[in-house]
Amino acid sequence: MQMIQPVILSGGAGTRLWPLSRQTYPKQLLALNGQDTMLQATSRRVSDGDRFAAPLIVCNDEHRFIIAEQMRAIDVDPLAIVLEPAARNTAPAIVAAALMATATAPEAILLVLPSDHEIRDVPAFQTAVDAAATAAQAGALVTFGITPDSPHTGYGYIRRGAPLADVPGCFEVARFVEKPKLERAQAFVEAGDHVWNSGMFVFRADSLLAEVERLQPDILAACRAAVAGASKDLTFVRLDADAFARSPSISIDNAVMEPTDKAAMVAADIGWSDVGSWGSLWEIQPQDSSGNALSGDVVVSDVKGSYIRAENRLVAAVGLEDAVVVETADAVLVAGKGRSQDVRAIVDQLAAAGRSEVTHHQRVHRPWGYYEGIDVGDRYQVKHLLVHPGRKLSLQLHHHRAEHWVVVQGTARVTRGDEVILLEENQSIYIPLGTKHRLENPGKIDLRLIEVQSGAYLGEDDIVRFDDDFGRDSATKQ
Q1: Residues of each domain in the chain carrying CATH 2.60.120.10
Q2: 185 CB neighbour count, 10 Å cutoff
Q3: Fewer CB within 10 Å, N or C, the chain?
Q4: Dist. CA 358–CA 345, nearest whole Å
């Protein structure tokens, strides 16, 4: 079997899993069901070096450092981490990946995977991939049809057509169906000829590009220009922004899979879930004798069929049934489990009000580590900073604030004007307003410190960078 090139799409926002999933830290970057994040779990599923090449990851610019760090943590060295300069749905992202793959292997077989799905039966998944790759070698554009176990209205459906000759388990696609109403979904399940549309695909790169040229020439032209004009940014590949923005924004289903006459599907019973809501996460997690999935410091009495998650403090619940309760440092969600698909409406309200809880947590990740807010008041705020060994912040200054740093763990090397000072635990330093400064961790353990900011303006955009290890400029908060 020819080596398969995984393409992992990591551009989603996961708004229905708010408040845990935020724009700057969406669900694929979270460990929702085990120790690995969803992105890490997806990468591990395609880590067999005899079958799969190193993955090509397509992601948003603002997530690039987190993704790189998560891949390092599981010893995965991606073929490339490709940065989308604008959100254009899945079709342009996949076409750009296919163009990059054909540069070295014109007949490369691509396995396209969303980064935020759960697959519990990995051997069955790999068997399905092998069957799909066989069909793809012959020119088919293959999707994975998931055997339904309920009349789910949150998924699209595929009607199974005639079997493909010489490829057991593969079928022609008779039609794609948008997310149906409950009555229609029930009829699909009872008939037994419809499967859930998983959003996973296998095709030869050249076969896909030929169909895109026929069906969506504007996408192909924009992506060709974006790939041709791509630039290296540290370890990342940055697609040309102007060219990529010219592509229509459209899903690969609407752009190619629905209008093509080459669509096929492999029937896959692989323990799949798109983890698209708190209710679907409840379904795949271990439950107690009352049907509750509990995570963190949770105490319940007379609670049934509920999902309750505590991230930072004790959560106590009494007399609930079929409920969702999710606590984070700055927000708490309470919802009926059957309405967990509707969390997006809350996110929309928060976004319209300009609330920061939509975009980020109190803990904000940076390429050097993270910071999290502890307290904020008139003309001051207090943060906890963690800097990983060997990492350093940019050489910078602030026009409107001064800073006090107190080291509580590790060793800090501080540049302050022309001075370079080494600080150990329980030592502190003052950085006056307008002074060039830099913080770095020269040690072998994480550096932790408390930062007290004081001044007339404390926004994250009050920063002028003079030198930065991560290629950021003053306008870039990441």
Answers
A1: 363-467
A2: 22
A3: N
A4: 12
**CA-CA distances (angstroms) from residue 321 to 14, 58, 99, 456?**
25, 40, 50, 49
Write out the two tokens for 291.
């049907």
Alpha carbon distance 73, 54 (integer Å): 15
The yes/no answer on whether domain 4-273 falls in CATH 3.90.550.10 is yes
Comparing CA positions, the residue from 30, 44, 48, 39 lying closest to residue 8 is: 39
Say which residues have a Cβ less than 8 Å from residue 267's Cβ, sequence separation at least 6.
128, 145, 147, 160, 169, 170, 171, 195
CATH classification for the domain delimited by 363-467, as one of 3.40.50.720, 2.60.120.10, 3.40.50.2000, 3.30.2350.10: 2.60.120.10
The Cβ of residue 41 has, within 10 Å, a number of other Cβ atoms equal to 22
In the chain, which residues fall in CATH 3.90.550.10?
Answer: 4-273
How far apart (Å, rounded) are the C-alpha atoms in residues 161 and 168?
A: 13
Angle in degrees, CA 170, 174, 175, rounded to 5: 120
Residue type, 61: D
pLDDT class for 473, splitting at 50, 70, 90?
low
| CA distance linking residue 370 with residue 364, whole number of Å | 6
pTM for this model (two decimals):
0.89
- Tokens 């060997």 correspond to 390
